Amino acid sequence: MLVTMRAAGISQLIRQQHKALMMSNRDFDRRYDYSCRCGWIDWAHADIGQHTPLIEQVEKEASKNPVENNLNYFLEGDPAFIIHYGFQSGKGLKFERNWVIKKGLSSQEKNSVALAIFEAAGQELEEWQGTFIPKDIVRSSSSFSVEDLTSNKLAFYMALRKFTPEDVRSKCGVISRDKAYDVWVYMNKNFGGLGQLKNKESTPVYFPCEDCKGEPIGMPHEFDSIRPAEHGRLWVKPTQYVGATLVRSGKDVHFRSSGSFKAVPAIPKKK
Asked: Is the pTM of this model over 0.90?
């Protein structure tokens, strides 16, 4: 009996030491939380800093690059404006482009367009990361990692609705670090880790968890209340970059619903 207890004690000590090591390394630190309703949350993705400019540009109907506001833009004949927005990868690489949005939208429509552009930009970055990393031209296993797009979506709502990380943890039902570690071990043992599991939707992926039994399944309404606007009617992704040469030309730029465009001699801009 004594030997069994000692063995159990040693086993428990080893497990505690192993847990401490895992929880202190870069793969399982304060960057990650597991929640009953939002799945894994990667706080490096759930960061509002790079997404607030999107919300501000859509609200103001103007690009953050003042020179881009000097032209007249049209989307299928209606007055439009252009913005400059994209994601920054964890490696510090920015992936930005132009987006064109119809002017005079309601607040609800603007939110719908902002979410659509946000999701399109996130998809582009993940696809790009999965193709190559310019520094060494190697494949990236982190592309479309199971928690990426879900965490991105949380960041969007945090930027738009001014939710705090504490709000997110509460509404998503974040579990304790010890219990999250157990989910982490299960995930690594059965699937090989976060980077090996892919998810091309913002819908959470769930894993077995004792603390989450009986909890509601699905993203909380506060983080899933806006439907993204379809490409073509209220916004488009240009098929080509609106470069400095075009901006300096002073021409009017007419966009089709496909994202293609042509520049024509300018009509004097209305004051």
From this structure: no
